[in-house]
Specification:
The chain folds into two domains: 11-64; 88-134. Helices cover 43% and strands 9% of the residues. It contains six helices and four strands, in the order H-E-H-H-E-H-E-H-H-E. Helix 1 (18-27) crosses helix 3. 35% of the residues are buried. By secondary structure, it is mostly helical.
């Protein structure tokens, strides 16, 4: 997890899958696993991103370099900055998916993909609109 707060896993959640453990350990560096690498592992090995994040947490591997710019960067935890100008089409796409002033990470990724823009552009626009991104696919937040 990216924060100092460890989750308390119980039952099946607390069990380690040796295949996932090996993949997380082999792909982490200095006890950190980059978001992009975590998602590549999930995609390449047909494992849920949540399982990758849970195993990183159980193994005390910190998630780093969130592709939305929200955590895991040096000199502060995030690099997301409010957009100076807002693309009206992007604003409409975001507001069409917002629930309780929050946009899920998955939906933010989908918007970026659909509009052929970077994930950080979606995140920066959300920051300007004061919309929080939630439900990290890796479980960091």
């Amino acid at each position: 997890m990216s924060s100092d707060k460890k989750k308390n896993y119980t039952g099946d959640e607390a069990k380690i899958d040796n295949r996932i453990k090996t993949l997380v350990l082999e792909n982490s560096e200095n006890r950190k696993l980059n978001c992009a690498i975590a998602h590549k592992i999930a995609n390449d090995y047909n494992i849920s991103a949540g399982d990758i994040g849970r195993h990183a947490d159980l193994l005390d591997i910190r998630l780093a370099k969130c592709q939305m710019g929200l955590f895991g960067y040096p000199q502060g935890s995030k690099i997301v900055k409010p957009s100076e100008s807002i693309n009206p089409e992007l604003e409409k796409a975001i507001k069409g998916k917002v629930l309780n002033n929050k946009l899920s990470c998955r939906e933010a990724w989908d918007i970026a993909s659909d509009m052929k823009i970077s994930k950080i552009e979606v995140s920066n626009t959300c920051e300007a609109l004061k919309i929080k991104i939630n439900k990290c696919q890796l479980g960091a937040f």
